[in-house]
Amino acid sequence: MTLSPGTKVRIKTMAPLGHIRTPHYLRGKTGVVERVLGPFKNPEQLAYMVPAPTRTLYRVRFEMGHIWPDAEAPQDTLDAEIYEHWIDQDAP
Amino acid sequence: MGGDAAGPVPMDGHDFAIWEKRVDALVILGQQRGHFTVDGLRRALEDMGEQAFESMTYYERWVTSLNQNLIEAGVYSLEELGTKMEEVKARGDTYGAVQS
Amino acid sequence: MPHDHHDHDHLSPSGHPYRKDNDGQLTYWQTMEIAIRELMVEKGELTPAQIQAQIDAMDARSPANGAAVVARAWTDPEFKQRLLENGSDAAREMGFDIGPMHLVAVENTSDTHNLIVCTLCSCYPRNLLGLPPDWYKTREYRSRAVREPRAVLREFGVELPADMTLRVHDSTADMRYIVLPARPEGTENLTAEDLAKLVTRDSMIGTGLPKAP
């Protein structure tokens, strides 16, 4: 199921060792889907030259004041690209 | 790295050396040949650890990652690399002097 | 001034220190580069001409390419719309070889400023702007641009009003980002060619603003 722009999402906190694109500073944080970028081969498999099925890639927007409680301008935002398997579907 | 404390952004730049441009070109062409992906390059860079980031320049790290990926892809062996590097060193003392 | 190199005696035409890469003591890493290159040629993987062609193609890319795209967007509302909808296709439409790059253009307006960073390594719209500046790849920029971006911007001489929204883009994955700066005031009568001269590299990364006419 593809998530629509505007959907509130939480990034998983898992931390397996290996090549991962999900920035550490966003794990466990909540943001909003800004746009759907489409299917891309999973870099976590591309990095090891093993078969890499596609995953939906999203651009997720986070509020600076949520990521960093002492942010100078809490209304500023940070956009990052997040693969579907890093989105915690069960989170509220 | 993202979000870590760090000092002022260093504004100094430099013109790319020819050996750096060659590393850049080999990285692009090696991907076009299908030997590795940008993700494989990053994986090898990350596996080098924080110490490498402090002690090596950008293209020193990239040539290391390029080599790691070409070895893994079987393009050449470590024996071939070691032999070739000794051969190159024996040609002279400067980058310009040892080009074949 | 961020880009002064007052400590260096010998500067190249681009204002950067020369690298004595051909006559200094051969380093281990240079030796490795030569060995890899020669092995790949010997094994029929690549030819010296292919390697040189790739270097020439990269050298030919510069911020002037991006500036031409920005100037066109400032003067052609329909092109601007296409650029914001699909940056890759818009750049190709202008004849730029951007390969498989997925380009996203983000627009600065009277109330929004955009800033690009790659915290993972050095993702950069290199097919449109050329190779990234050294500072873009530093630990300092990559660490702080997502943590205290307004403080970083001040180091570049950009002070954002408190009521302006700053959007930081961490380009860690498959997209490459370019900032479409706001068109400077007082440029109503300029041609696209003259407008392009106002568009600096940093204004397309978000660490700078276009020059005043």
UniProtKB/TrEMBL annotation, chain A:
Superkingdom assignment: Bacteria
SUPFAM superfamilies the record matches: Electron transport accessory proteins
Gene3D superfamilies: 2.30.30.50
InterPro entries: CN_hydtase_beta_dom_C, Elect_transpt_acc-like_dom_sf
Domain Nitrile hydratase beta subunit, chain residue ranges per copy: 4-88
Name listed for the protein in its UniProt record: Nitrile hydratase
Source organism (scientific name): Litoreibacter halocynthiae
From TrEMBL, chain B:
Pfam families: NHase_beta_N
Organism name: Litoreibacter halocynthiae
Superkingdom assignment: Bacteria
TM regions (residue ranges): none
Name of the featured protein: Nitrile hydratase beta subunit
SUPFAM superfamilies in alphabetical order: Electron transport accessory proteins
Domain Nitrile hydratase beta subunit-like N-terminal: 2-91
TrEMBL record, chain C:
InterPro entries named in the record: CN_Hdrase_a/SCN_Hdrase_g_sf, CN_Hdrtase_a/SCN_Hdrlase_g, CN_Hdrtase_asu/SCN_Hdrlase_gsu, Nitrile_hydratase_asu
Entry EC no(s): 4.2.1.84
Residue span, Nitrile hydratase alpha/Thiocyanate hydrolase gamma domain: 29-207
Chain segments carrying region Disordered: 1-23
Amino acid composition bias (Basic and acidic residues), ranges on this chain: 1-11
GO molecular function, one term: transition metal ion binding
Domain of life per record: Bacteria
Keyword match Lyase: yes
Catalysis: reaction(s): an aliphatic primary amide = an aliphatic nitrile + H2O
EC main group: lyase
Residues annotated to bind Fe(3+): C118, C121, S122, C123
Sorted UniProt keywords: Iron, Lyase, Metal-binding
Similarity comment: Belongs to the nitrile hydratase subunit alpha family.
This protein's name: nitrile hydratase
Source species of the chain: Litoreibacter halocynthiae
